[in-house]
Amino acid sequence: MLASVVLSEIFMLICPEVSIHVVFWFLLDFPVVVFFLVFFFGQHLACGLWGPRFWVDRLCVDQTDETTKAEGIAGLPTIVANSSELLVLWDKSYFERLWCNFELSIFFKGNGLKNLRLVPLWLTPWLLTTMLLSYVSARLVAVFTESEPSFGVNDTSKLSGVAGSALLFGLKRFCGYAAASQAYLCFCLPPIMVGIVSFQKKLDGHRDMLESMKSFDVRNAKCTVENDRLVIE
Q1: Cα–chain-centroid distance for residue 41?
Q2: pLDDT, tens only, 143-181
C-alpha cells in the first residue's frame, strides 16, 4: 500500500495534468484486473499458440476399458521417466497413495529434484484471498483519500506554503497521509487480521507436508486395486 502511495506521487510529479482518479486506476485497479484475467483465463487468451503440455494419469489413462487401462498403466513409468517436469498437487492424502509415490520415485530417479514442482492445494485459495483482501483494503483507502478536498489539488500554486515547489507539494501531501494513519488503519486492520490467521494455516500446511514426508512408509500406503501393490513394490 505504501508503494502505491509513493508511486502515485511520483506519477503525479511526472504527469501533473493527469487526474488522480486515472492514477489510482492505472496503479491500483489495472494491475489487479490484469492479474486475475491472466490467472483465470490465461490458457484461453493464448489461443493454443503457447502453453506447456500436461499428461494427467486420471484423464489420459482410459478409465472405462480394462484392456486399454492396463496398457496405459503399463506405460506409465516410461511416460513419467521421459517427462521434463513433474507437478505434484499435494494434499494430506498424497503420501498415503501408493501410485502417486511410485510416480514420484520414478521421476526422482531419472531427474532428481530440479524439475519437481510441489504445489499444495491450499496455496491458490490462500494467495487469491490474500490478494483480494489487500486490493479491497487499498481501494477503500483510495476512495477515502479521494474524498478529501485537498487531495484533488494537483497544482502547487493552489496549496498554501508550497507554491512553485513540486517536492514540497508531495512531502506535505505525504505528511497528510501519515496524520490520517488511524483512519487508514480502519480499512487495513480487517485484511491484516485475516492475513495473520491464514498465514498461520499456511505454516500449519507446510508442517503437515513435511511431517507426511518424514513419516512415509510404503507398507502403509493405500492402493485401490490390491493386485497392483505386488507389481509396484
Answers
A1: 15
A2: 776 666 555 444 444 444 444 555 565 566 666 666 666
Question: How is residue 204 written as a grid cell?
Answer: 500449519
- Length of the chain in terms of residues written: 233
Q: How many domains does the chain have?
A: 1
Strand partners, 88: 118
Which H, E and C letters describe 121-189, residue by residue? CCHHHHHHHHHHHHHHHHHHHHHHHHCCHHHHCCCHHHCCCCCCCHHHHHHHHHHHHHHCHHHHHHHHH
Pairing of strands 86-90, 116-120: parallel
CA distance 47 to 230: 44
Check residue 70 and report its DSSP letter: H
**DSSP state at residue 30:** H
What the block records as the C-alpha cell of 79 is: 511416460
**Model confidence over 28-70: pLDDT tens digits?**
888 888 888 888 888 777 776 776 778 887 777 777 887 887 7
End-to-end CA distance of the chain: 54
Which residue in the block uniquely carries the three cell numbers 498415503? 96
Residues 159, 165: contact at Cβ < 8 Å?
no
Domain that holds residue 57: 2-232
The pLDDT value given to residue 194? 77
Q: Which helix (H) or strand (E) holds 118?
A: strand 116-120
